[in-house]
Amino acid sequence: MAKAIMIQGTMSNAGKSLLAAGLCRIFKQDGYRVAPFKSQNMALNSFITQEGLEMGRAQVMQAEAAGIAPSVLMNPILLKPTNDVGSQVIVNGEVLGNMSAREYFAYKHKLIPDIMRAYEKLDREYDIIVIEGAGSPAEINLKQEDIVNMGMARMAKAPVLLVGDIDRGGVFAQLVGTVMLLEDEERALVKGLIINKFRGDKTILDPGVKMLEEKCRIPVVGVAPYLQIQVEDEDSLTTRFEQKGQVGLLDLAVIRLPRISNFTDFNPFESMPGVSLRYVQQVSQLGNPDMIILPGTKNTMEDLLWLRQSGLEAAVKKAAAAGTVIFGICGGYQMLGEELSDPQGVEAGGTIRGMGLLPQRTVFSAQKTRTRVRGRFGPVEGVLDTLTGVELEGYEIHMGQTEALGELRPLTVISDQVTGEKGKEDGAHTGGVYGTYVHGVFDREEVAKGVIRGLGRKKGISTEEITGVDFQTFKETQYDLLAAGLREHLDMKRIYEILEEGV
């Protein structure tokens, strides 16, 4: 049976996902078979496995760090918020249905057998399981029948490392307060404290660390620095949205929709010198980018209405008329059409006008497309003709089907890796407007470089200095850097002892 260790945090975005990934990498480097696990994840960024099942991207990232293929066993429950008070509930990679927060709170204990079946399968296959919690274990209103924090630690008999975020201030109150709010049996599970995202001279922090250990009677097993690591975070609080760097030689603007999903699609451009990638929420932020990207969303119709009300729809259409390249992915692709219809009430219900940039129509249905695909771009016209014939790989997650209403060229020709269907046409393009259902479409180096070559040629600048990277290779180097940084600042000897001692 596997040894288990659990990372819990004092709040959301304390750095649990990244620390769990770093431990996965360290254990892998040390010769262990290691797997990540999170019983319940809430995120709009999801992934499709080779079996066509859906799971959260944090566990995909952690599986990559562990050097293994992602599996829904690592994330048996995924909640994808559909509005402020409800979510689509996905169990073992398949949609169970939509529930309000109150309905799910009353129902979740019924999912414990699914959680434990998944965990026990990993338990039989691996030496170490690194478990991630969610939010804080001291959320008093959520502790009843908890299945993701201390409840999960008890079920897995896993010692807990509690993480606090010093970057946002108040880390000592975070950690002491969280420990004090735990029940005695819960407090006994916490075997180590970690201060995360520290910047500066650690010796200045030493008196606080001593006080923390005295008040909590739990050892501090590390003060982790603020690591500048580029991996695919999924948290909606991601700092990517707040970055305000200089506009590069080539400027890409992503519309930050209220229910934006799978924004990791654009990460490959972040590592390209001379290219800036910005997230835009207001017309005043748009400027004059070389390409505007409409990303995926969990609610296409409501986010399109927001786009319309904010004035960004008019600004995007004006930019398209002036020759700016527009690229839509998944929900963003659906928005580009003439009409969106929802006869079954899957999203907002009814029918609304699209942006009218592609002659097509989308009809939503309860059936969800979940698959992995591989293929190539067909004959592409316009600025991005540099993509013609370039191979691509990715996955689809969407509700509804899109049909052409006139002459429209497909963007790609793909093969479905789950059903085996070959020669399937995907997406569309006309003029400078392009769209696809494929998430991860830019991950291959030649695709990202093709986009940049086309945009650079249009702008009349040389892109010889703007080089792409193979994104998979790049991520491997980032996981190694993450592991090296944590080895230096965590007491790995003590963490291994905690792992061996258990609870």
From TrEMBL:
Domain CobQ/CobB/MinD/ParA nucleotide binding intervals: 5-227
Domain CobB/CobQ-like glutamine amidotransferase intervals: 252-446
NCBIfam families named among the record's database cross-references: cobQ, PRK00784.1
Family membership: Belongs to the CobB/CobQ family. CobQ subfamily.
GO molecular function: ABC-type vitamin B12 transporter activity; catalytic activity
Species whose genome carries this gene: Candidatus Egerieimonas intestinavium
Active site, per annotation: 330, 439
Superkingdom of source: Bacteria
Known pathway: Cofactor biosynthesis; adenosylcobalamin biosynthesis
Protein's name in the database: Cobyric acid synthase
Keywords from the named record: Cobalamin biosynthesis, Glutamine amidotransferase
BP GO terms, sorted: cobalamin biosynthetic process
Region forming the signal peptide: none
Pfam families: CbiA (PF01656), GATase_3 (PF07685)
